UniProtKB/TrEMBL annotation:
<dbReference type="GO" id="GO:0016787">
    <property type="term" value="F:hydrolase activity"/>
</dbReference>
<dbReference type="InterPro" id="IPR002925">
    <property type="entry name" value="Dienelactn_hydro"/>
</dbReference>
<keyword id="KW-0732">Signal</keyword>
<protein>
    <recommendedName>
        <fullName>Dienelactone hydrolase domain-containing protein</fullName>
    </recommendedName>
</protein>
<feature type="signal peptide">
    <location>
        <begin position="1"/>
        <end position="26"/>
    </location>
</feature>
<dbReference type="Pfam" id="PF01738">
    <property type="entry name" value="DLH"/>
</dbReference>
<dbReference type="InterPro" id="IPR050955">
    <property type="entry name" value="Plant_Biomass_Hydrol_Est"/>
</dbReference>
<feature type="domain" description="Dienelactone hydrolase">
    <location>
        <begin position="148"/>
        <end position="249"/>
    </location>
</feature>
<dbReference type="InterPro" id="IPR029058">
    <property type="entry name" value="AB_hydrolase_fold"/>
</dbReference>
Length: 287
């Protein structure tokens, strides 16, 4: 254990997301017939390349994409920060049934930027993008991170999580469940929502939320309420919230690719630093 411390797909998807909000209480195809216990035994790990692992091709309960920096070398001692990206409802799928389902992850967020050769964070990091067939399950996520730590050269002091829409909720839910016992050191939930009764679980977890004030799928009030609930518990690092004026549900594209810098509503926290640089400000030993 570690120390304590869509783009829019269809009307049906939009309806599903709205139901989740209302009911909430709290490229490539890999041979799936191979016997594999871990990642390091696979010759498909390629530094600087994003590789697909459909469900069933490893011991993980998820299918996922994994990207390791070009500097990554299994023979070296150097370890790297880990960024876990949680997709929204439009990218749900089961790659055990259809391995090509996994490709829907490539439409948004860091995996999309990597796929389009637009990924250039200041600090090299491993990026893993799992796929869930339904709303994110916190225990499954925790076990998945354990699996990654066991099989990749990860700096466990620098594990970060981000997600949008349903994935934003997944970020909040993971910390609401695990608190300071989570593997994750900081989260960036975008256009999400959470359980406002769990603010005390975020005491040692820096949070930077983003939302558009014209979001008709998940109201930006959901993010404001969650951040207020966290800050009411006097966290070590005050939770931040950035609101884009006139932006609808897709507030994540401009956040992930950094084009939203300087365009946020001045009544809220400014978007004045890349989220990836902001994450890197924090590590377990600092909190």
């Amino acid at each position: 254990m570690v120390p304590t411390i869509i783009k829019k797909r269809s009307c049906l998807f939009l309806l599903t997301i709205q139901l989740l909000v209302n009911c909430s209480s709290s490229d490539s195809v890999i041979d799936t017939n191979r016997e594999t216990n871990n990642l390091v035994g696979l010759n498909t790990i390629q530094p600087g390349v994003q590789v697909a692992y459909p469900k069933g091709s490893t011991k993980s309960q998820y299918g996922f994409y994994v990207y390791v920096p070009s500097e990554y070398n299994i023979a070296n001692a150097e370890k790297y920060p880990l960024l876990i990206h949680l997709h929204g409802g439009g990218a749900r799928g089961d790659s055990a049934v259809n391995p090509n389902d996994l490709n829907s992850i490539l439409f948004d967020g860091p995996p999309s930027l990597i796929h389009k050769n637009q990924w250039n964070p200041k600090h090299p990091m491993i990026v893993v993008s799992p796929q869930s067939p339904s709303i994110w399950n916190t225990e499954n996520l925790h076990n998945f991170i354990t699996f990654l730590i066991d099989n990749l050269k990860i700096d466990t002091q620098r594990i970060y999580m981000t997600g949008f829409s349903m994935g934003g909720k997944g970020c909040y839910d993971y910390i609401s469940s695990k608190g300071s016992n989570s593997y994750v050191v900081a989260i960036v939930p975008i256009a999400g929502w959470g359980n406002v009764s769990t603010g005390n679980q975020f005491t040692n977890i820096p949070v930077w939320a983003f939302h558009g004030d014209a979001d008709r799928i998940i109201s930006y009030d959901k993010s404001i309420s969650m951040v207020n609930a966290i800050n009411a518990e006097n966290p070590t690092t005050k939770a931040k919230i950035t609101i884009y004026s006139g932006i609808d549900h897709d507030s994540w594209s401009r956040t992930y690719d950094n084009t939203g810098r300087g365009s946020a509503n001045s009544a809220y926290d400014p978007f004045d630093i890349s989220i990836y640089e902001w994450m890197y400000l924090y590590k377990k030993t600092d909190l």
